[in-house]
Specification:
Helices cover about 75% and strands about 0% of the residues. With about 450 residues, the chain is mainly α. It has a single domain, classed as Hydantoin permease (Orthogonal Bundle). The protein is globular and about 65 Å long. The N and C termini lie far apart (about 50 Å).
């Protein structure tokens, strides 16, 4: 017990509410904001889908986020230690362990994709995308993914960047970088937006994103919105518990949650405005997944005046999103090893970097069927897809459900209200009552539906 107290006393916190906001937003904003969310919004009815998504944020995303904020700040512990502190000698710490495992699995494949982004920043700076054709840009992406050496090198570079920031600590590392990079991301994305909106035919791209089409709001679209609302806010990975443990005591948790959810959605829509007017202006078909990010965008931007500068800006802002997200995911692992295993921060960072490099290489070499390890299959999936499936489809929905049940049924209502109201100094009665009802009854039901759909037991 004495060791635990010493660790708690030495713990860093973020320096201000602004630092809390940027760090938490940096965690929520990731690669999915740049291509997946805008594409799905357009495919599932534009403004109609956006409305459903925001509703799902209120019913699923925000309640779980606030629950994790409570767990983290109340205990000032890592994802596993927090549950042990609140409910000692019970199985509840399995929820934290599931978040730690999910963070590992996500880093194994996410660092691979981030490596591709870093590589494309390098290629854009070199001018490799000048006068590219559809065939050449497709071949370049294929080469980047299937090479037995290049993906590993860039994955190592990504992990080295993230590790060097984390070694500096919470305030000098995570806080300083996110406070610097998130405003830069906003400026770059607005720059790309301005250029995209001046293109002839840009209106069609805006219609794809924003024109409401309620005929596309199928049950599958609603489930997609539910999944996005949950996964895009970095929930059930231990991130918001870990970051919550660094929050200042006077931080308004409910306000921070709302600001992060709103700003995360704004970044996603700004990314869509940067991408789809350009895509439609040049007669391209919007494509989901890596194809949009690594093939369509270079092809479209290369045809614009000053297109290469915009391409550099676009891939740089994408690298910022990837880096900030990975900082938060890896910090879950670092905090766990520091506090539960008793190692120094530097040792925890370096240890996790080595693990992620070694096992992440399996993902990097299996991202495509023609990759070096592309033919190896476990339960019908390669390493890359397996890491993604187990984390996204199993661990995260179960973890989120357990957090909702834990907060709704195993934490005293008065204790929860006391923490969220900062000891009664904030007037949150109406908002708290809505939150408490939602996380007890609505959020668990919706997460059960998401989980059953994700593993194929129910289909819509």
């Amino acid at each position: 017990m004495e060791t635990s107290k010493v660790v708690t006393q030495k713990r860093e916190t973020f320096s201000s509410s602004l630092a809390v906001f940027f760090a938490t937003l940096g965690s929520a904003v990731g690669l999915g904001n740049i291509w997946k969310f805008p594409y799905l919004t357009g495919e599932y009815g534009g403004a109609a889908f956006l409305f459903v998504y925001l509703l799902c944020i209120l019913l699923v995303g925000l309640p779980v986020m606030l629950g994790e904020f409570y767990i983290g700040r109340k205990t000032r512990k890592n994802a596993v230690g927090a549950f042990s502190d609140l409910k000692p000698n019970t199985p509840w710490k399995i929820t934290g362990l599931a978040g730690v495992l999910a963070s590992y699995l996500i880093m194994f494949f996410y660092s691979c994709v981030a490596g591709w982004v870093y590589f494309y920043v390098f290629k854009a700076v070199k001018g490799d995308f000048a006068s590219v054709t559809a065939d050449s840009v497709k071949a370049a992406f294929g080469s980047a993914v299937t090479s037995p050496i290049s993906p590993i090198i860039w994955q190592v570079i990504v992990i080295a960047v993230v590790s060097s920031i984390l070694i500096m600590g919470v305030q000098k590392g995570i806080e300083k970088i996110t406070k610097t990079l998130m405003p830069v991301l906003f400026v770059l994305i607005l720059l790309c937006d301005v250029r995209a909106l001046t293109l002839p035919g840009a209106q069609e791209g805006l219609q794809f994103l924003f024109q409401p089409d309620f005929s596309k709001l199928t049950a599958a679209a609603v489930l997609t919105a539910l999944g996005l609302a949950f996964f895009k806010l970095s929930l059930a990975m231990g991130i918001m518990i870990t970051y919550g443990s660094y929050f200042t005591k006077d931080n308004n948790l409910m306000k921070t949650g709302g600001q992060v959810a709103f700003s995360d959605t704004v970044v996603s829509m700004l990314a869509g405005i940067a991408i789809f007017p350009a895509v439609f202006s040049f007669g391209m078909e919007p494509a989901a997944g890596p194809g949009l990010l690594f093939m369509t965008i270079p092809l479209v931007f290369s045809q614009m005046p000053l297109g290469n500068l915009l391409l550099i800006a676009f891939f740089f802002l994408t690298s910022i999103a990837a880096t900030c997200a990975m900082l938060s995911i890896t910090e879950v692992l670092v905090a766990y090893w520091q506090e539960e295993r008793g190692v120094s921060r530097q040792t925890a960072v370096l240890l996790n970097a080595v693990v992620i490099v070694i096992i992440g290489a399996l993902a990097a070499l299996s991202a495509d069927k023609t990759s070096l390890l592309g033919n190896i299959s476990i339960f019908g999936k390669g390493f890359f897809d397996l890491f993604d499936y187990i984390s996204s489809n199993i661990l995260l929905p179960i973890g989120g459900l357990l957090v909702a049940l834990f907060i709704g049924y195993f934490i005293k209502k008065e204790d929860l209200k006391d923490e969220l109201s900062n000891g009664g100094t904030l007037q949150i009665d109406t908002a708290f009552n809505l939150f408490y009802f939602t996380i007890r009854y609505i959020t668990p039901a919706l997460l059960i539906i998401v989980f059953l759909n994700s593993i194929g037991l129910i289909k819509f």
